[in-house]
Fold:
Amino acid sequence: MKQVVRVAAGQGFWGDDLDAPRRQVEGGPIDYLMLDYLAEVTMSILQKQKARDPALGYARDFIGAIESILPGIVGKGVKVVANAGGVNPRDCATAVKAVAEKCGARGKLRIGVVSGDDLLDQLDAVLRDGHALANMDTGEPLSTVRDKVLSANAYIGSEPIVEALAQDANVVITGRSTDTALTMAPLRYEFGWKSNAWDQLAAGIVAGHIIECGAQCSGGNCLYDWRSIPDLANVGYPLVEAKSDGSFVVTKHPKTGGRISVPTVTEQLVYEMGDPRSYITPDVIADFTTIGLSREAENRVRVSGIKGRPPTDKLKVSIAYQAGFKAVGTLVYAWPDALDKAQLGDKVLRARLDRLGLRFDRVLTEFVGANATHGRLAGDQHGAPEVQLRFGVRGPDRAAVERFTREIAPLVLNGPPSVTGFAGGRPKVEEIVAYWPALIDKAVVKTSVEVIQ
Structure:
């Protein structure tokens, strides 16, 4: 058993820095590279892609990332764990295999494919079996929007990833696993943590939570002393150096920008957190109030003392559904009296929509530069030198939303003066994808692992 296992984060979301995976592999010693691509809305986007082309439905950036780090996988023995499979992990694996063969690494990758999280094709059977998949926020049963559902994926835990690693996979591709499992699974596998080693499992979850958003814990998007964060253009992505007792150090490669400090790690810890005593995952419930942080050295934060307890018998299900259409347009008004002009533009546009008989579920106005971020707390912003009028509508009728997009441009010449930019041109009609969180019994979700070479 290794004394220390190093897991590095190389992506915090689909669209993150394309070069980060290579820098993590080449910048210093690591054992595993964790790549997190998925967010709730991402699954519905991937499902749409798969509907258009059955060979798609995965994060295609991942294929380029694999190509850039192949020397590290083959030559250094770095293993990769990623949820890039989206709604089609099997074809994602096929694409990875193809790029390996193209680059002269035929037969040198063992690709573990974890599936079973995608419940879309089983949804009607699940509902018939009495699983209401009630909305966790409203209590409504899923049946009220069943005909509009675009994707449905259960958040699976670390066990199938550990199984793939136990079958000697050096690249593991999952669908909608939890973000934290991508880091915890390698630690669980390497240290042989049992399924009831609650404190160690909780430590693995905390390690995963700290690095799951990439550079967000190493100085990016950091509020504390943000002016002093060095060289963000070359920000170092984080990694954890973990021990079998569950303690670990958060750090980054030398000669990289950004900063790993107790404040930066703390900011990431409170990201997307509910009850700090109960951070619930499929594997364990971690108690964030037990986390101990201390500065070990420059850009090294030690994390210890984490406690965990048994998980629930449920898995969270992320469901996306079609909820109408929207369009958003903008106009910029200049000083003097920029806010007054923008407010008049808002009034004129609303009157014109009423005159045309256009009705929407919601009409939303923001005055960017005056109150869009802080609302009423912004105080009197009438002295703002420029204000962007951002005007949006949403509703079930695509034709009505389309008609709105033709009404904002005329304000350039027949509305208030000093319009300095028609940002983005005519607004585009977009489909609204809404989020439906639900719970399901763990016994319903059956995961499987396949290793291809």
The chain is about 30% helix and 25% strand. The chain has a mean pLDDT of 95. The radius of gyration is 24 Å.
